[in-house]
Amino acid sequence: MTDKDQTSDNPRGRPLWIKLFLGFNLAALGLFILFEVGSSLMKSDEKKEQLQRQAVSDIHEALKRNPEGFDYTGGLSPKIAYTIDSSRIDEWVHFRFADGRLTRSEKIAKDSRDWDIAFHRAKIVTNGGATAKDGSVSVAAIEGASIDSVVKAPGKGYLVDQATDDLTETMNPVLDKWYIYDFWRHTLKPKNNVYLLRTSDGGYAKFRIKSYYCGVAPACYTIEYVYSASGSGKFTGQNAS
Fold this sequence. Notes:
The protein is of the alpha+beta class. Helix content is 23%, strand content 29%. It has helices spanning 3-9, 16-63; strands at residues 80-85, 92-96, 101-105, 117-120, 123-126, 138-143, 162-163, 170-171, 179-182, 187-190, 193-198, 204-214, 217-228. The protein is elongated.
C-alpha cells in the first residue's frame, strides 16, 4: 500500500492509534468533570441540609429564652426581650405587646384587634391604616436613641400603614426600611432606632429591633420593648426597668 493510499483512508493524516488515544482522553476528561460537578452538587446539598438543621436548632434555643405567662394589660411592663420566629414563607406572625401573645396565620388577620404588629420574613406591618382599616395602631421613630432614654412617647409623628402599587401588599413608612442591607454579606442589620407604637388597646409600646438572626437563621427577630397601658405614653413608674 502506498502513502497515498494511507492518506485516502485517513483524510486528516492521523494514524488510527492517535485517534483512539485522543478519544480515550476526551472520554476520561468528561468523566472527571462529571464526577467533580456531581461531587460539588452533593457537597452543596449536604451543606444546605447542615445549615437548615443548624437554623432550626438556633431558633429553638432562642425561643426557649422567651419569658412565659406574663400579662401587663392595664399596667406597665419592665423591659422585655422577646424572640419572634418569622422564618416561614407561608405565614404571618402577629404580636401583641401587652401580653406577648403570638398568633400565626397564612394571611394578615385584618379583622382581629388582638394584635399590634405582624411579621413576614423581613416585612413588618401594623394593625391599622391600609393593612387593617378598623385597627388603630400607628407608629413613629426616634433615630439614634437608646430605648432607656425614651421615657415618654412623642405626641406626634405617628403614621399608619399605606397602600402600595402592589394591590396585594401594604407598608408602613416608618417600618418599611427598618434595616441596613449589607450588599457584600447579603445580611440585614437593624437601624439604631427606637419605635413608638400606639397599641390596639389604647396604650403605647416602645421597642427596638436588636437582631434579625438567631445564629444562622434569618427572619428570627429579637426585639426589646416596654409596654405602657397609659394613654399618656409614659414609660416610667413602679414596674418600669
